[in-house]
Amino acid sequence: MCANELEEVKVEDALLERPETRSDSHSITCHDICKDTDHRKLAICSIICGLSCFGIISLKYSVKAREMKKRLKNEDCPQTRKKVKKYSEKACKWGIGSIVAWVVLILIFPLLVGFVSFVVTFMD
């Protein structure tokens, strides 16, 4: 097995374990699920299937993470890795937030229309 296959097995094992049996006490973050990604696909999906203004912010952080990885590829300092991880996590959070906000908006809109019609009938 090569190193990439071992990493994939470790990630799959970590996702399959139940939270109470997991050795570490922190919750799984976006970065734990997809190591060293910039979440560009999620950002694009959040523009199409979510609120596009939040999706654009997600894409901005995704581009920053990818460009920083490319530019500082030869440098392996902890500060660089922290910045890439920070941008990647922000891209993930904004992308998921965009999709969640869109779903909430879709669910709340019919309720608000019903509430307004209910209030209008009492005004008559």
Task: Give an account of the 3D structure.
By secondary structure, this protein is mostly helical. The protein has two domains: 1-35, no CATH class; 38-123. It is 76% helix and 0% strand. The chain has five helices and no strands. It has helices at 3-16, 30-33, 40-49, 52-71, 78-123. The radius of gyration is 20 Å and the shape is rod-shaped. The termini are far apart. Residues 1-6 and 14-22 have low confidence and may be disordered. InterPro entries: CD225/Dispanin_fam. It holds the Pfam family CD225. Belongs to the CD225/Dispanin family. One of its GO terms (cellular component) is membrane. The chain crosses the membrane at residues 41-63, 91-120.
What is this entry, summarized?
This protein is mainly α. The chain contains five helices and no strands.
Topology:
Blueprint lengths: L2 H14 L13 H4 L6 H10 L2 H20 L6 H46 L1
Shape type = rod-shaped
Structural class: mainly alpha
Q: How helix-rich are the residues, as a percent range?
A: over 70%
Main sheet specs: none
- C-alpha termini separation: 75 Å
**So how many helices?**
5
Rounded mean pLDDT score: 77
Number of strands: 0
Radius of gyration: 20 Å
| Unreliable segments of 5+ consecutive residues | 1-6, 14-22
Order of helices and strands: HHHHH
| SS strand fraction | under 5%
Number of domains: 2
